[in-house]
Amino acid sequence: MDDLDRWTRVLPLGTGAFGQVHLAWDTVAERWVAVKRFTGQDELGLLRFVIESRIRVEHPHLVRTLAFRLVDDRAWLVTELARGGSMRQLMHRSGPLPWGWVVEAVDQLLDALVALHATGVVHRDLKPANLLLRDAGAVRPHLLVGDFGIATWRTVSMTGIGAAIGTPGYLAPEYLDGSQPAPATDLFAVGVLAAELLAARRLVHQSNASPAIPSGWSTTLPLPDGVPAHVAAVLRRMADPDPRHRYADCAQAREALLAAAPPERRGDLTSVEAADLLSELPSGWTLEGPLSPEAPTMVTAARAPEAEPAKQPAVEPVTTLVAPQPPHPATPPSGLTPPSGSTPPGGLTPPISTPPTGVTAPPRARRTKPARKKRRGRRVVSVIVLLLLLGGAGTLWVASMTRTIPGLPIAGQGDRAGGNESFVWSPELVAPCSQAELSDIREGEDGRERCQRTSDDNAHWVREPERGFPISNPNGPFPEEVCTADGDTDYSPVGDRVTCTDGEWTITS
User: Fold this and answer.
1) Which one of 240, 352, 427, 480 is least enclosed by Cβ atoms within 10 Å?
2) pTM to 2 decimal places
3) 144 and 292: one domain?
4) How far apart are CA 40 and CA 473, in angstroms?
């Protein structure tokens, strides 16, 4: 049996920006699952799909990834099935939801985000359509956060420089203004979607430039009558347009929510009935699977044009919005060259549409329209290389573009004799730099300068020490920062060798 034939697609469930989701039967594990098939048209979309498959954080309120397959130009992501459908479907079906039920759902969502953010993942696309219910029927809600198609992972972001990607209506104002995605941007979306569930209608924040802006929404989130004042205050603070007025993180927001509405005061949590995705199975299928061993032949009929797909609400588009750009000099500083190691192996061009200002991009050869097989071969080669990069075997290209995946230190990137020495030094800060410039090296007034992390949220150009940059990772972790895989090793930006031990980076000799 072909490996991909293990999952028999039975019924389409919906279509998103990069993939189509089917209800499927796992013929090996003998259970219902959801299969997301990549339907994009370019390598950048496929790379996002690969990153989504790599985000595997174990938590009861995060959708579990069961398998990922990449064969030629076909990619499938298999996840657990959320049988109760999405919150968006529930909202359309049931209307305004009781405030206690919504508080329970938001409580579970914040709990999941605390775990997600601790691993360096920012979801970026929180909305009712991506919040799923594990169980069908009138039962206590069990929320599952799904669809990590545009999430950032360890600051790996496939968004072009100066662009914000996401669904209009849920994007925090500072993110639209050019700030990097952060836990605070996810928290803003939580407050917005909570208000939508309570009102059973879309709300669009004024910063998203929509004609459907609720009047008066400048600093106060519009909430329906009947929501207790102390609960409303917590939700409004989550979605405050000014990030300085929001909670410090999702953990603090959850503490405030628990204080405002303890579980015993949330009322009847079985008053809302979720639909059952298994209620529309085609003939030949039961809740326990196929009626006969001929399931693969029956699925052909299930995928035929005459098979009616499950009725789904219109899919909300994921939109890329160009954020305002800071002023840049008209011409790059003289003598500036691309950092050594910025070109990936095999001449593969990184999927970034615009190089950072002032950095000379390597020339791209003019492409002609290749034959179909040649295009497929090129895509396969590209994906294989990118998978190696993401899996920890990649080298300097990923590190120069984004945050380095632990496991591979970066040398001094210089041509000095001392560039590969191992030592720790105190950087001399010159000026702030952006996430897009991390690992770049430029010629400054007093010698070479490198862009590297200098704290949790800051990056600066630092002057090269006399001995040259040591073995270090400009985008690496600092000691005592959170890590995810015990045993991983890396180098800090200042040359400390660190190892992931008990969920924390520690200095090793």
Assistant:
1) 480
2) 0.60
3) no
4) 33
